[in-house]
């Protein structure tokens, strides 16, 4: 199967980008876990992607998106986009993601379903009156952030003055209301859940243990969650399975599964709980929780007997079953054409670094249309592995050694006029003059005339590009025109020759 791993990163977002940018590690771990069964393509979410992604791009997407740009709300926007396009994806849908991100909505659902949760009040301004039923100490959080963003030691307040200051801080710095809830001085438990419907299964309960002086508040703030050099990070550690009595463990797991169901979550999730006097108080539901190798979800999976690879494949298989998709193994390279000396392979993600280096090498790309244009990985992923352009791209390897030789493309294929354009590039200087360019042109022509049944193919070459001209003529291309001063090399304009090859079976 062709699987996209959809992720987002935040550029120049300061310290609080750490929680989002660590997703790059997760992408690598997830891809490695699936690569022996599937063709796996990491895809970064950015604006350019939206015009290229469609239902034909992937069989299913591993959705690791935690936002769009610097906005956490982008998490459910992206899921909504996938829904509109009809692309299957892992994890929860836009409604569940949006509701879980909004702590007020989550609280309302929990209270309506009689799920224990700390008493709370939402502040849209610090001038609001405090509900007299709320008991200090209180904790103040942004209402629409996740990953502990906006939470620090100062979030715990013990008097009205500090409460008002913290409410103002949240509203002014995060441009959103503040959730104020009673601080539950209990044990911090994480309950990971995997599956759907009757196959929903809680994993062993994990506990966050706080190695802090007596009397200090026990909270998983931003520092303790993400900043590895901080004292707070070193003072918290995960223990799994948590030391619970059988009765308490059953009650905690049952609560987590109830939350999973009433919040409408899919495939996998984590429910954060404070346990006090035997009562599991639900703090929040985390659909699509982080699944990095050191995450709480991975820790609970290991305790359940699943290594990281098994965990990732379990999440994938759970989503596939929800969509009634039968998984098909499709690992390994797909050879499109074999001329006995060279192999033309459908480009895969692992080829793109080499292609990018060729395109960005001034000498190798000297005669390309835009030789000094810097090509990045996101562009290549979107153009070659996401967009359905109808082109035939070939990553060329030497058959005997497997060594990369070059890149070729049959593009602008027009079935109505029965025409296409052709281009190719020999990557290394050591491979030039060995006839590889001519072989690549011949391979592309074979696809155009014998498989696509096209009538003609055109190509261009700068007049100084004698090697390409020789290869074209050697494969039956004829000069049909000249583009005056069309190609720029080292700041100088040069003529470009237009070639055309006609399918022999089309000739009268």
Q: How would you describe the overall organization of this protein?
A:
By secondary structure, this protein is of the alpha+beta class. The chain has 3 domains: 2-98, 3-Layer(aba) Sandwich (Rossmann fold), CATH 3.40.50; 101-322, ATP-grasp fold, B domain (D-amino Acid Aminotransferase, Chain A, domain 1, 2-Layer Sandwich); 335-506, Aminopeptidase (3-Layer(aba) Sandwich). The chain is built from 15 helices and 21 strands. Strands 14-15-16-17-18-19-21-20 form an 8-stranded mixed sheet, with helices on both faces. Strands 8, 9, 10, 11, 12 and 13 form a 6-stranded antiparallel sheet that branches. Helix 2 packs across helix 11 (308-322) and helix 14 packs across helix 15 (466-474). It starts with a strand and ends in a 6-residue tail after the last strand.
How would the blueprint of this fold be written?
Blueprint: E1 2-7, H1 18-21, H2 23-34, E2 39-44, E3 60-63, H3 74-85, H4 94-101, H5 103-112, E4 120-123, E5 138-142, E6 156-157, H6 160-174, E7 178-182, E8 187-194, E9 201-202, E10 206-210, H7 222-226, H8 231-234, E11 236-239, H9 246-262, E12 268-276, E13 279-287, H10 296-303, H11 308-322, E14 335-338, E15 342-345, H12 352-360, H13 377-386, E16 392-398, E17 404-414, E18 419-426, H14 436-451, E19 456-462, H15 466-474, E20 478-489, E21 492-502
Parallel strand pairs: 1-2, 1-3, 18-19
Antiparallel strand pairs: 4-7, 5-6, 5-7, 8-9, 8-10, 8-12, 10-11, 12-13, 14-15, 15-16, 16-17, 17-18, 19-21, 20-21
Helix pairs in contact: 2-11, 3-4, 14-15
């Amino acid at each position: 199967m062709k699987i996209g791993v959809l992720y987002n990163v935040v550029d120049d977002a300061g310290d609080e980008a750490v929680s989002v940018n660590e997703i790059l590690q997760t992408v690598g771990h997830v891809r490695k876990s699936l690569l022996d069964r599937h063709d796996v393509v990491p895809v970064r979410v950015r604006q350019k992607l939206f015009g290229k992604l469609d239902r034909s791009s992937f069989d299913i997407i591993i959705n690791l998106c935690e936002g769009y740009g610097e906005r956490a709300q982008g998490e459910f926007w992206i899921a909504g986009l996938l829904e509109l396009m009809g692309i299957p994806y892992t994890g929860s849908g836009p409604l569940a993601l949006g509701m879980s991100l909004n702590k007020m909505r989550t609280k309302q659902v929990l209270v309506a379903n009689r799920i224990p949760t700390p008493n709370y009040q939402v502040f849209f301004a610090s001038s609001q009156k405090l509900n007299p039923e709320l008991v200090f100490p209180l904790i103040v959080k942004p209402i629409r952030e996740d990953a502990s963003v906006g939470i620090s030691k100062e979030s715990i307040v013990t008097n009205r003055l500090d409460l008002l200051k913290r409410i103002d801080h949240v509203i002014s710095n995060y441009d959103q209301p503040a959730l104020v809830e009673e601080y539950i001085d209990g044990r911090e438990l994480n309950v990971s859940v995997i599956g759907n419907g009757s196959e929903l299964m809680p994993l062993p309960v994990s506990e966050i243990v706080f190695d802090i002086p007596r009397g200090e508040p026990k909270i998983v703030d931003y520092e303790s969650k993400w900043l590895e050099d901080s004292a707070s990070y070193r003072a918290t550690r995960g223990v799994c399975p948590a030391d619970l009595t059988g009765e308490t463990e059953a009650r905690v797991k049952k609560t987590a599964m109830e939350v999973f169901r009433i919040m409408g979550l899919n495939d996998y999730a984590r429910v954060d709980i404070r346990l006090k006097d035997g009562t599991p108080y639900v703090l929040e539901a985390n659909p699509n929780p982080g699944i990095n190798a050191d995450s709480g979800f991975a820790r609970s999976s290991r305790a359940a007997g699943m290594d990281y690879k098994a965990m990732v494949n379990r999440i994938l298989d759970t989503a596939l079953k929800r969509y009634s998709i039968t998984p098909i193994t499709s690992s390994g390279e797909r050879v499109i054409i074999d001329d006995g000396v060279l192999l033309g392979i459908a480009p895969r993600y692992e080829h793109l670094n080499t292609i990018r280096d060729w395109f960005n090498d001034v000498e190798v790309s000297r005669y390309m249309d835009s030789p000094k244009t810097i090509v990045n990985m996101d562009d290549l992923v979107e153009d070659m592995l996401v967009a359905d352009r109808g082109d035939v791209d070939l990553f060329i390897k030497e058959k005997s050694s497997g060594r990369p030789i070059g890149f070729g493309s049959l593009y602008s294929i027009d079935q109505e006029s029965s025409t296409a354009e052709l281009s190719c590039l020999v990557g290394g200087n050591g491979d030039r003059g060995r006839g590889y360019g001519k072989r690549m042109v011949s391979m592309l022509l074979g696809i155009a005339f014998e498989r696509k049944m096209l009538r003609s193919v055109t190509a261009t070459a700068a007049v100084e590009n004698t090697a390409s001209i020789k290869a074209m003529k050697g494969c039956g291309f004829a000069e049909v025109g000249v583009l005056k001063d069309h190609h720029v090399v080292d700041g100088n304009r040069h003529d470009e020759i237009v070639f055309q090859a006609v399918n022999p079976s089309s000739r009268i």
